[in-house]
Amino acid sequence: MRTIMERLVNQWIHGLRRSDGLPCVRLRRIPSSCYVYMALWILSSLIAICFAQGATELPPKMFTQQPQAGSAQLRGNTKVLLCFASGTPSPVYRWKKDGVYMTSENLTDSALRIQNIQRPDAGYYQCVASNTHGAILSNEVFVRVACEYT
């Protein structure tokens, strides 16, 4: 780790040039204890520059709304599961049922609508929010389907 920091600091120091092309500093030997502090200073400067230039894209961090199972749904009704997550750029949503991604063109929304719910629709559902920087999983919820007795 120390050698990586030494190389980083040396490259940075020796890369500094005045407008006339001459080096800004001429150092023969830097005490090894200074490398850690100089590397941290360089790193914090680079991070500050990135944020100053508007590099504020972040992976989804948390769900602002988790799916809720609610009570058992009667067969034939519509069950709606909602999830929302924060992140920049805005997350895209996918849904899993019993640990497997559901396949359908209408499953990229933060709302999952199960229309005309039937017994095979019962199971564990989970929302996946993702963007170009990462993904997070919601809590699993168990959706129950009830039969109407007459």
From TrEMBL:
Cross-referenced InterPro entries: Ig-like_dom, Ig-like_dom_sf, Ig-like_fold, Ig_sub, Ig_sub2
Is Membrane there in the keyword field? yes
Give the transmembrane ranges.
35-55
Family matches, as Pfam families: Ig_3
Q: Which SMART domains match?
A: IG (SM00409), IGc2 (SM00408)
Chain ranges of the Ig-like domain: 60-138
> What is the top-level taxon of the source organism?
Eukaryota
Keyword flag Transmembrane:
yes
Its GO biological process annotations read:
axon guidance; dendrite self-avoidance; homophilic cell adhesion via plasma membrane adhesion molecules
- Tell me which PROSITE patterns the record gives: IG_LIKE
Q: Which residues form a coiled coil?
A: none
Q: Which UniProt keywords apply?
A: Immunoglobulin domain, Membrane, Transmembrane, Transmembrane helix
Question: Which Gene Ontology terms of cellular component type are present?
Answer: axon; plasma membrane
Alphabetically, the GO molecular function entries are:
cell-cell adhesion mediator activity
Its name, as the record gives it, is Ig-like domain-containing protein
| Native organism | Capitella teleta (Polychaete worm)
